[in-house]
Every structure is written in C-alpha cells, then in structure tokens.
Amino acid sequence: MVSMTIKEYAQRVADFLSEKDSNYTFAVRDAIKNGETTCVDIHRKGENGASVLYIKEYYNRGIDPKEVADSIWRDFYENSNKRGLTQGVMEEIQRNIIDWNWVAPRLKARIVSYKRFANTDCICEPMPNTDLAYIAVVELGAIGINGVEGSVKVLKNHASVWGVSCREVISKALGNVKTEDVSIDSVSDMMIAQIPEELLEIPDIREYVDMCCSVPLYYVTNSTKTYGAIYAFDKSVLRNFSNMKGGFDVFILPSSVHECIYVSLLDVDEDIESLRWIVGSVNRNAVPDDMYLSDGVFRYFADTNEIRQVA
Fold first, then answer.
1. Between the N and C ends of the chain, which has fewer C-beta atoms within 10 Å?
2. Structure pTM?
C-alpha cells in the first residue's frame, strides 16, 4: 500500500464506500475518542444520526482501503436489511414510548454537563457534589458499525404520561446500566499497541511515548465506546479499581461523554491544579461541544465510598 496519512487513508475508504450506495453519504472527520484520531461517518440521506467507522486499527495494520470498505459495507448493509435502518428503530420507539412497561427495560442513564441540560425539558437529576447530572434516554438497537441505534431523551411530560416520578425514571435508567459492560484499558498499552514497531524504534517517538506512559492512566468506557462516562462514575467500578491499586483514592478526569480517565493516588501527587489544567486543555483543543462533559477534576474517596468534585 502506498504510504499515506491516516486522513488520506480514511478518505480512500470513504471514496470506496461512496461507490456502494448513493442513498448514503460518507464523511471523514477528526475524532477524539479512546485514542482514535479519524473516523468516517456513514449517514443515510433524510435520516438523523449516523454510524461511525473508526479507522486507526485498519490503518495501522496496513489493510487495503478497498478491502476495508468491502468488508464494512457487507456487514453494515446485511445487518441493516435484517434489523432495519436507524429510521425504523426510531419509529419503533415513537410507537411505543407511551407504554411504561415497554419503556422501562429500555431506559439507560447517561452522565452529562448539568448546565447544558438544567434548563431543558429533559429529566435531569444533578449528581451530588459535582457539576454533572444524570439524564435518561430510551435506547433501542446495537451501537456501532455492525448495528443500528436509536435513542430518545426522556422528557418530563413522558413521566407524566407514564404516571411515574422523574426520580423513578432516573432510578430505573441507572439500574439498567450493567457494570459488567465496563471497559478499563491502560492508556500506555493502547498507545504502544497502536504505534507501528518501526516507529517505536525512532528515538524521538520512543521518548514521547515513554513520557506519556510515565504515569499509569486508564481509559474507562463501555464495550461500544459510546456514552461510556456513566461507567466511570459507578461506585462499584471505582471501588474495584481502587482495590486493584491498593485501596488508594482515584482521580476521575472527564474526557468526554463517551469516556473518562482514571489515575490512582498511588501513582500521582495531589497536584489538583495540574490535573485540572490537563482536563481543560483537552476540552478546549480536542473535545467537540456536543461531547463536552466537564472541566472539573473528580475524586473517589475510598474510605467513605464517595465521589466529590475537587477542582
């Protein structure tokens, strides 16, 4: 394969995909999510939402862009035919959303910026001692390139129709978040795995990687890497991570609504301002507005099993 940048590679994949079906558009964009840098949005014309194809793994493995496009389209198209496209999923939600018995098992909680949702019609419950909040969505379908996904934010008038309280809606949505779906990965391991071995032999690159890996950091999300920040603030997940690190407190650094970063007090000093600067810098330079979570730094206190915003 002729040498090309990852963005050029992504564009080649998108160009090949564009030949598959004129009812879809394929757009390359930058992505800041679990170490990814570039993705292709697959969007059916006339519909809301898009499926996302992350490129880095294919690029690093040197797979021919046409081969990637053929494989991805086969999976995507066949799955779409079996399960219906996103529009069909959304229509199913709209047909059934007045039925609490149908809705209840399909509720999911997400963590968001409180100030972004506080004055909306969404059911929004502040998280104690933080600038974050829980919202509830009705979610149906698989997320990602191998499936279709639809979700609808739950509004206050939905709760009135169902005859339940907003607190009950949030409680049910939180209960449906299964912690066994959590994914915790070493940032250094992910970085090293994604950089070709020949590049690691270049002294400047090796030095940069070693510097980035000097403090053990961990990505926390879910298996689909979508709206996974909720898992990072789950106390059972935090308690297990703290125990793995000798019972020390844990700092939670919000990366986006999709993932957060854990760093144990075992591995860093209590330099809160430096941690806050890191979070703010990433938010200003790398996180799209619709994925923004918080500029704060959060701490899990192992001895009291509490989460508090400390900066």
1. N
2. 0.68
